[in-house]
């Protein structure tokens, strides 16, 4: 399976590195075009990917083409590659935020298999949560192939395309919410006398361990909460304090407002 990446910046570059690191795809099977010559040169030298002189060469040599350029330049890149895509018919995988499979179809002007994906920044450490959907022309096999490749950089979830905004809030924005939570835990510890740096390390480990514990269990979060709250103890005191200060309501409102913002941005 030969892959092509149009754009190898933050996200394209992270996915390429993840795929190579995981051993799922060999570097010599990854073709790249990248406007920034320095990035392309260093990826060829350090990762061993195949730099292509132009998009035509990339599409000719690829079964799957990842569109990894910013949404603002996406339409012009599609305009530049559409004739070649019509001839070669690779599976097109777009990661452009806010650009639907329907609008990609309109930009192309013909039916072709398209998978839309939305990774998150944790792709860099092979722990992305990646959403996927497909257009009508793409087959089940196409989306399975995309899932198989992208599972190399973390978990994948097939969702309805109208849920991409919601996914972005809980997977794309949430790293920032979690960093805020980690910092708040550490700040509490600092207030009570612990060195902040050490408190941050401890808080991050506790958050990562709790997420892993939840993922491995088949229990509802509240069952796990009850398990660590001994009657009259310190944890239930803290949990009730968070409830008193409307922790859950604040998080739910943050997700809701992120989704509303996403919807308003995509209307413009
Ligand atoms: N970063 C994230 O956390 C994230 C999360 C989810 C989805 N995404 C999506 O991923 C896509 C890429 O985002 P990014 O953050 O990786 O952007 P980025 O860092 O700017 O990477 C895009 C790269 O593509 C290059 N490029 C621009 N025009 C090109 C062309 N015609 N041919 C080849 N390369 C070209 C850019 O070069 P120049 O800089 O020289 O223009 C840049 O190096 C976007 O659609 C975004 O919505 C990103």
Overview of the molecule:
The chain contains eleven helices and eight strands. With 268 residues, the chain is an alpha/beta fold. The chain has two domains: 3-159, NAD(P)-binding Rossmann-like Domain (Rossmann fold); 167-267, Orthogonal Bundle (ProC C-terminal domain-like fold), CATH 1.10.3730. The protein has an eight-stranded mixed sheet, sandwiched between helices. Helix 4 (74-88) links the parallel strand 4 and strand 5 (91-94). Helix 7 (164-191) packs across helix 8 and helix 7 (164-191) packs across helix 11. The longest helix is centred in the middle third of the chain and has 28 residues, at 164-191. The model has no long low-confidence stretch (mean pLDDT 95). Bound molecules: NADP nicotinamide-adenine-dinucleotide phosphate (NAP).
Helicity level, as a percent range?
A: 55-70%
Distance between the termini: 38 Å
CATH level-4 homologous superfamily of the largest domain? NAD(P)-binding Rossmann-like Domain
Secondary-structure-derived class: alpha/beta
Q: What is the H-and-E element order?
A: EHEHEHEHEHEEHEHHHHH
Q: What is the 3D shape?
A: elongated
Q: Helical stretch count?
A: 11
Low confidence ranges: none
Radius of gyration from the alpha-carbon trace, in angstroms:
22 Å
Remind me, CATH topology of the largest domain?
Answer: Rossmann fold
Q: Mean pLDDT, as a whole number?
A: 95
Instruction: Characterize the biggest β-sheet.
Output: 8 strands, mixed
**Hetero ligands:** NADP nicotinamide-adenine-dinucleotide phosphate
With strands numbered from the N-terminus, the spatial order across the biggest sheet is 3-2-1-4-5-6-7-8
Tell me the β content. 5-15%
Q: Could you give the count of β-strands? A: 8
**What CATH architecture of the largest domain do you see?**
3-Layer(aba) Sandwich
Any idea how many domains? 2
Name of the top-level CATH class of the largest domain: Alpha Beta
């Amino acid at each position: 399976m030969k892959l092509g990446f149009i754009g190898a910046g933050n996200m394209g570059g992270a996915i390429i590195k993840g795929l190579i690191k995981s051993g799922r795809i060999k570097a010599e099977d990854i073709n790249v075009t990248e406007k920034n010559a320095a990035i392309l040169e260093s990826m060829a030298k350090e990762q061993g990917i195949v730099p292509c002189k132009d998009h035509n060469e990339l599409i000719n040599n690829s079964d799957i083409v990842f569109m990894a350029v910013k949404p603002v330049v996406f339409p012009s890149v599609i305009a530049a590659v559409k004739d070649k895509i019509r001839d070669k018919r690779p599976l097109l995988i777009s990661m452009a935020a806010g650009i639907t499979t329907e609008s990609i179809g309109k930009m192309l002007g013909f039916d072709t298999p398209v998978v839309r994906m939305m990774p998150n920044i944790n792709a860099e450490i092979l722990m992305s949560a990646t959403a996927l959907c497909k257009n009508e022309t793409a087959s089940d096999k196409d989306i399975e192939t995309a899932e198989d490749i992208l599972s190399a950089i973390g978990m994948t979830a097939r969702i309805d395309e109208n849920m991409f905004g919601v996914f972005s809030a809980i997977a794309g924005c949430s790293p920032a919410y979690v960093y805020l939570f980690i910092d708040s835990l550490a700040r509490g510890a600092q207030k009570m006398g612990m060195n902040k740096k050490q408190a941050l390390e401890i808080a991050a480990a506790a958050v990562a361990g709790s997420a892993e514990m939840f993922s491995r269990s088949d229990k509802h979060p509240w069952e796990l909460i009850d398990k660590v709250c001994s009657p009259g103890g310190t944890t239930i005191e803290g949990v009730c304090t968070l409830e008193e200060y409307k922790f859950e309501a604040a998080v739910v409102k943050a997700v809701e407002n992120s989704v509303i913002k996403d919807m308003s941005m995509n209307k413009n």
